Amino acid sequence: MVDSAGRNWHAPMSEEAKETGRIEAFSDGVFAIAITLLVLDMKVPGAKDLPQDVRLISVLGRQWPTYLAYVTSFLTILIMCVNHHRLFQHIRRTDQVFLMLNGLLLMGVTVVPFPTGLVAEYLHHREARAAAGVYSGCFVVIAIFFNVLWRYASHRGRLLVKNHNPDIVAGITRQYRFGPVMYAVAFRASFIRVTASVGICLGLARFFAVPGSGRRSRMLEWFTQPTGLNVT
Amino acid sequence: MVDSAGRNWHAPMSEEAKETGRIEAFSDGVFAIAITLLVLDMKVPGAKDLPQDVRLISVLGRQWPTYLAYVTSFLTILIMCVNHHRLFQHIRRTDQVFLMLNGLLLMGVTVVPFPTGLVAEYLHHREARAAAGVYSGCFVVIAIFFNVLWRYASHRGRLLVKNHNPDIVAGITRQYRFGPVMYAVAFRASFIRVTASVGICLGLARFFAVPGSGRRSRMLEWFTQPTGLNVT
Amino acid sequence: MVDSAGRNWHAPMSEEAKETGRIEAFSDGVFAIAITLLVLDMKVPGAKDLPQDVRLISVLGRQWPTYLAYVTSFLTILIMCVNHHRLFQHIRRTDQVFLMLNGLLLMGVTVVPFPTGLVAEYLHHREARAAAGVYSGCFVVIAIFFNVLWRYASHRGRLLVKNHNPDIVAGITRQYRFGPVMYAVAFRASFIRVTASVGICLGLARFFAVPGSGRRSRMLEWFTQPTGLNVT
Amino acid sequence: MVDSAGRNWHAPMSEEAKETGRIEAFSDGVFAIAITLLVLDMKVPGAKDLPQDVRLISVLGRQWPTYLAYVTSFLTILIMCVNHHRLFQHIRRTDQVFLMLNGLLLMGVTVVPFPTGLVAEYLHHREARAAAGVYSGCFVVIAIFFNVLWRYASHRGRLLVKNHNPDIVAGITRQYRFGPVMYAVAFRASFIRVTASVGICLGLARFFAVPGSGRRSRMLEWFTQPTGLNVT
């Protein structure tokens, strides 16, 4: 905290960090609750509705769309949460517009249990494509919100940490551009093959989990450098 | 933290902040949960109840009151959370009555998913006006609770930070007076035109998001000055 | 933090506080979630089930047991949360048994939405007394858990802060003894008059909110002295 | 914090702790929400469905499988939360794979309300064994996830605190090996006697609560030594 010259580096840094600390903590809470509420989309099949000659295990087995939707939504929200942190490593200040854009992003995230429930309910139904379309469409919107939030914050370094690395900032901008495009592919796929659409969403969670390459991925660098200062 | 004269400014300040820190953290948790529970008001239309010749997308489209109510309630709770913080920038001490008043305010906030569900269920129904009346009426009550909480805390600076700025305190008091009045307008509107009533609530969220004017709005000044000390 | 003799008082104190900090934070989260989940007991009356000649407002009015149960449970959990804090001002260490006793107490608190739903559903029903009995009975059990937790922790100062004030400790023990007794009265009342039983529970929330008397109540002293050290 | 030689021990330690702090806080939130959502599996029996000659109390009594499942799941998640902390006392760094493994573990934990609801619904039903099998099977999977997470982190001390005690690490590895095996016994028991299966799960919560022996159990040592440093 105190370097050899006796200067206290930590204090001004954390002073700068204060503006966004509360927004992050609140956002984290919302992510944690949204991810846990997903389980409410898993309905217990009523004991009285079970026909005499049907096994519970086969009823549960036929509910696989529910589990697929659950796992996909869980991993997607988890990755979004990690990426939200990642952005906030670089963001230090806040303003009215940013506060509202972050609120819209959170609104997108908290909605996820609803389209997840749609996919769970309709994946065996003739209207499965509509459900998968709403599901992937929801992620298109969230991906756009992520881009808008980041571009607003990073435009000419508006809200970024003072000594931010322009290459990393440009790298995030570049990677995030793929988000809406790729979820749009999942959206298009929903018109053709429903499971493909949900599967693409699942694959994208994997993609966004690994933002860079190299021995130790960049995401972790960011995630584990809460100060966002690339001290070398 | 330590000024040129070697005095530690931070310690006594945070010492003074301690009294309300827990109340704020608990309140934040309640806000985050209430805002996320709103999604449970979005019901997935049962696959078995879908008539043969009806598209899922048109059923979802007809559910627009649900989405309108969701967005309005989400933004309203979000703004309330921001304003709650804003008040607590100025409040440093607490007492029995204040604790109870804050509890009543939180009770009002946690109730919001219920009238939101009412609007979602009844906006196409002949009883839509009653639902919108309960919805806006709920916000009238919460706005009154906000005023009572603030007036109790700020009366003769009772629980405020020692070096509070009387002009800012008076400014908040003035602006908050509008709350109950304007939500009462939304309440009145519910007797005439339901969507107008909900729309006014949506507009009020926008209004309370921007408490001041000037180059950098006052809300942000408050929001980003956790110490509440207007050091210049 | 650093006294005139240059000794750092804060460090050892917070060191001693560490053992229970996590338990408190986790408990607070559970309290906040349980108090917010109560709203799920408020059911929106189905629009299709509303008879042609009945007003929504009168249906909502007839749901008053729901609101009474909601308010009572909300305030009771709120006061329990405050009192939980209050105990933890005096408790600094933890052990296996204490961890389990606190877990049992939390289990009691998280159950509250269930009997609350029972009262809401049955208060107009011939089985109202059974519902009110389960409701107040649940509070009897929680009050006993509170006593067991406190007595285990305070027995010969087992887990208390080193320089605890024996008079205050004895005062808490004395006041807490009333809890099970008074909730037992509410339980007995449920056999005679249901609303009286719920009303007593509501009154008890008020009673436990004001643990002492004097110019500034003792509860607040405790609540706002996170260190638990009675530095005079 | 500052030893006699003037070295600041605290700073580098907390610096090292930072990597996992966020993961722990997020995980704690998920545990707290999952444990509180369990109450939603307790369904209030509909007042209209109650036959004329049946007492509410006897209906509630017949719901005992619900309460058994609730208590078992509550205690199991509570113990998992404590053990999660326990592991994180020794883990200081994080990487991509670890982040994903912890995510999978959390996914397992958040799912628990679903099989809990299954047991509650089917324990009186001819398909009770299937429900108990899914329930205990879910815990087998979580126990495996716990082992994988710990083995990945502790393999050659990969992510552990620098001065970790190899004996304690080996002790945890040894004890955790029992988890999947013992839950597999509960799974096997579900084919024979349903209540035995759930009862074994309940007993295992007790077992994992007491990881060691001696005057003051090891779990507490770990739980109350947030630094993970075995300074003697």
In short:
Four copies of one chain form a homotetramer. Helices cover 71% and strands 0% of the residues of chain A. Chain A is an all-alpha fold and 232 residues long.
What does it look like?
The structure is a homotetramer of 232-residue chains. The longest helix of chain A has 28 residues, at 10-37. Helices cover 71% and strands 0% of the residues of chain A. With 232 residues, the first copy, chain A, is mainly α. In chain A, helix 3 runs antiparallel to helix 5, helix 4 runs antiparallel to helix 6 (128-154) and helix 5 packs antiparallel against helix 6 (128-154). Chain A has one domain. The A-B interface holds A 8, 11, 18-19, 22, 25-26, 29-30, 33-34, 37, 40, 93-96, 99-100, 103, 106-107, 110-111, 113-114, 117-118, 120-122, 124-125, 127, 130-131, 133-134 and B 1-2, 28-29, 31-33, 35-40, 42, 44-47, 50, 55-57, 60, 70-71, 74-75, 78, 81-82, 85, 209-210, 216-217, 219-220, 223-224, 226.
- Major β-sheet annotation of chain A: none
* Integer tally of domains of chain A: 1
- Beta-strand content bin of chain A: under 5%
Quaternary class: homotetramer
Q: Write the H/E string of chain A, N to C.
A: HHHHHHHHH
Structural class by helix and strand composition of chain A: mainly alpha
Q: Greatest contact pair?
A: A-B, 38 and 40 residues
The chain-level mean pLDDT of chain A equals 80
Gyration radius of chain A (Cα, Å) is 21 Å
Distance between the termini of chain A: 16 Å
Discrete helix count of chain A: 9
pLDDT under 50 segments of chain A (min length 5)? 1-15, 212-232
Query: Which term fits the overall shape of chain A?
Result: elongated
